[in-house]
């Protein structure tokens, strides 16, 4: 039996979905221009689909799991389970208006809003008790104000450069989104075992990306101070240097506190600090 995973055929999620599988040690046969492919070293079959169709395929059990943006997932309202956030494909679904207009209280009331996300937009308007006209269009939403179709748009934004180029400004965020792994609700125990095997690898890859391996030299009389700064996986590794009175200390640092820790380590007498990426991290 093989686990079937649905990923985007081409577009913004494609490259990172393929790299993630690769980093999980899953080699894929011949991915170019195919509807599906398989792996020779993991019981996995990969379906390449439009991202909009992925939640449905996973709900129906045509695919067991899928990688899709939360924006698409929550717009489609399908009965699937979210297993893991992946940290890529980050964007937000936002409202934007003409950059010269003031975004005053109640601005949205009675306005026409163009979007490809009518469900999420409707939900937001109801929550905010706003009545507005939703104009659903399937692409190039950012041109709607320019051609007089709507006063407001509700669209995906990452850097904001598309809005800027179209003379628009972002005024509200409706949803923060990133790519997630979803799963069909009724998998059998054999399929679940494979999902867990895959997820175990995904988590190890994610964790490794968030951490760095650090090596440094320090005088022995400073070690206690330095250990206090370094949690490591259990505790730091310490090796004596050839030079009397010095040690080499190895540990793992999380990216969030990285620069701060480096400064503190230097202040505590650490020298020759090396930082190297970690490929997989299993704890
Ligand atoms: P498909 O042909 O698969 O339907 P698409 O044109 O709908 O492709 P893409 O533009 O490739 O989709 O975007 C896929 C996903 O990437 C989005 O649904 C979203 O989750 C994510 N994404 C990240 N940043 C952005 C962005 N700036 N604009 C649009 N989508 C983004
Ligand atoms: Zn799409």
Features:
283 residues, 8 helices, Alpha-Beta Plaits, single chain, alpha/beta, binds zinc ion, five-stranded mixed beta sheet, 32% strand, D-Maltodextrin-Binding Protein, domain 2, six-stranded mixed beta sheet, flat, binds adenosine-5'-triphosphate
Structural write-up:
With 283 residues, this protein is of the alpha/beta class. It has three domains: 3-89 and 179-208, Periplasmic binding protein-like II (D-Maltodextrin-Binding Protein, domain 2, 3-Layer(aba) Sandwich); 91-177, 3-Layer(aba) Sandwich (D-Maltodextrin-Binding Protein, domain 2), CATH 3.40.190.10; 211-277, Alpha-Beta Plaits (2-Layer Sandwich), CATH 3.30.70.120. The chain is built from eight helices and 15 strands. Strands 2-3-1-4-11-5 form a six-stranded mixed beta sheet, sandwiched between helices. Strands 8-7-9-6-10 form a five-stranded mixed beta sheet. It has a four-stranded antiparallel beta sheet with strand order 13-14-12-15. Bound molecules: adenosine-5'-triphosphate (ATP) and zinc ion (ZN). The site of zinc ion has 3 residues, from loops.
């Amino acid at each position: 039996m093989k686990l079937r995973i649905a990923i985007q055929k081409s577009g913004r999620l494609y490259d990172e979905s393929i790299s993630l599988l690769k980093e999980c040690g899953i080699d894929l046969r011949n991915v170019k221009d195919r509807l599906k492919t398989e792996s020779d070293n993991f019981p996995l079959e990969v379906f390449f689909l439009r991202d909009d169709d992925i939640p449905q395929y996973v709900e129906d059990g045509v695919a067991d799991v899928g990688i899709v943006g939360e924006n698409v997932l929550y717009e489609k309202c399908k009965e699937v389970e979210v297993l893991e956030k992946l940290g890529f494909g980050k964007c937000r679904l936002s409202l934007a208006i003409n950059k010269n207009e003031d975004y005053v209280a109640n601005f949205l009331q009675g306005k026409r809003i163009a979007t490809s996300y009518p469900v999420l937009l409707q939900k937001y308007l109801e929550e905010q008790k706003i009545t507005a006209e939703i104009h659903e269009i399937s692409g190039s939403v950012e041109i709607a104000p320019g051609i007089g179709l709507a006063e407001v748009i509700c669209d995906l934004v990452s850097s904001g450069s598309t809005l800027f180029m179209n003379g628009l400004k972002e005024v509200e965020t409706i949803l923060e989104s990133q790519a997630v792994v979803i799963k069909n609700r009724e998998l059998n125990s054999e399929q679940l075992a494979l999902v867990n095997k895959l997820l175990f690898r995904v988590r190890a890859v994610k964790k490794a990306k968030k951490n760095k391996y650090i090596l440094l030299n320090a005088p022995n009389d400073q070690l206690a101070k330095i250990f206090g700064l370094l949690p490591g996986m259990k505790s730091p590794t310490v090796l004596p240097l050839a030079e009397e009175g010095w040690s080499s200390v190895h540990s793992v640092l999380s990216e969030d506190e990285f620069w701060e820790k480096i400064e503190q380590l230097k202040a505590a007498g650490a020298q020759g600090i090396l930082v190297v990426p970690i490929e997989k991290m299993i704890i």
